[in-house]
Design goal:
Pfam families: SAICAR_synt. The protein has 254 residues and is an alpha+beta fold. It contains 6 helices and 14 strands. The chain binds uridine-5'-diphosphate (UDP).
C-alpha cells in the first residue's frame, strides 16, 4: 500500500494514483462505519467481498450501457477505475420502506412503496449528509440541471436492472445509494456511475425470510455480518476462491 501516492482515504476505501494518467486504484478496506462515524468496526474480509461484488455489478451495468468508472479488478482488494470529478450528492433509490425513510415518516420497515422514490443527500461529514432537494443542488451549483437529469435516468435504470438481477437470486433490493462523477474525454463531459455498489450501500433482504444480508447487520448489531456479505457473493456466483479470509493482500490476478 506504500507503492503509490495516496490521493484520498475514505471510511471504507482508499484511492491511490493509478498506473496511467486519468486512472486511480480503489482499495477496499475491512473498516465499517455507521451513523456518520459514531459506530466503527471491522468486518473481516468485507473489502475482498465488496471488491468482487462491485466489480460484478458494475460490469453487468456496463454491459447494458450504463457508463461507470470501473475499468478492471487488479487483485483481491483493488480495482482500477477512471478518475472522475465526484458530484457531491448521494442519490438514494428506495423500493421498500426502511432506515431513515421509515423513521422520518413513521412507515413500518418492509412496507412496499407505491413507486420507486429518489432522494438526494449532500455529501458532507461535518453537516451529517443533509437531505437536499433538486432546487438546492442546482441553485448551489453542485450539479447542473442536465447532470441531475442524467443522474436520475441512470439511477432508475440501475434500479430496474439490479432489482431484477437480485430477485433472480432470491434477494429484494430494498434501497441503495449511488454516487456519480464527471468524466472528461476530448473536451466532452459524461456523467458516469462511480464509487461502489455492495452490501455496504444497498439493503438486500432474503425474499422468503426477509433476513437482512447487508450493512444493517453491522448497524443493528445483528451478528454474522461477514457471513451475510459472503452469502450475497455466493448467490451472485462470485465467492472468491480461498474464501473471504484470504486477505493476505494484493495478489495480481490475470
Ligand atoms: N446509504 C449509504 N451511505 C450513506 C447513507 C445511506 O450507502 O451515507 C445507503 C444505505 O445503505 C441504504 C440507503 O442508502 O441502502 C438508504 O439509507 P437511509 O437513508 O435509510 O439511511 P440509514 O438508515 O442507512 O442511515
Amino acid at each position: 500500500m506504500t507503492r503509490r501516492r495516496r490521493i484520498y482515504e475514505g471510511k471504507a476505501k482508499v484511492l491511490f494514483e493509478g498506473p496511467e494518467p486519468g486512472t486511480l486504484v480503489q482499495y477496499f478496506k475491512d473498516d465499517a462505519t455507521a451513523f456518520n462515524n459514531q459506530k466503527k468496526g471491522v468486518i473481516t474480509g468485507k473489502g475482498v467481498l465488496n471488491n468482487r461484488i462491485s466489480e460484478y455489478l458494475m460490469s453487468r451495468l456496463s454491459e447494458i450501457g450504463v457508463p461507470t468508472h470501473f475499468m478492471r479488478r487488479l487483485n483481491m482488494r483493488e480495482q482500477l477505475v477512471r478518475e472522475v470529478e465526484i458530484i457531491p450528492i448521494e442519490v438514494v433509490v428506495r423500493n421498500v420502506a426502511a432506515g431513515s425513510l421509515s423513521q422520518r415518516f413513521g412507515i413500518p420497515e418492509g412496507t412496499p412503496l407505491p413507486r420507486s422514490i429518489i432522494e438526494y443527500y449532500y455529501k458532507s461529514d461535518e453537516l451529517n449528509d443533509p437531505m437536499v432537494s433538486e432546487e438546492h443542488i442546482t441553485a448551489f451549483g453542485w450539479a447542473a440541471p442536465q447532470d441531475l437529469d442524467d443522474m436520475v435516468a441512470l439511477s432508475l435504470r440501475v434500479n430496474d436492472y439490479l432489482s431484477g438481477l437480485f430477485l433472480g437470486i432470491g434477494l429484494k433490493l430494498v434501497d441503495f445509494k449511488l454516487e456519480f462523477g464527471r468524466l472528461w474525454e476530448n473536451e466532452e463531459m459524461r456523467i458516469v456511475l462511480a464509487d461502489e455498489i455492495s452490501p455496504d450501500n444497498c439493503r438486500l433482504w432474503d425474499v422468503k425470510t426477509n433476513e437482512k444480508l447487508d450493512k444493517d447487520r453491522f448497524r443493528q448489531d445483528l451478528g454474522r455480518v461477514e457471513e451475510a456479505y459472503q452469502e450475497v457473493a455466493r448467490r451472485l456466483g462470485i465467492l472468491p476462491e480461498g474464501g473471504p479470509s484470504d486477505v493476505k493482500g494484493p495478489k495480481t490476478i490475470q
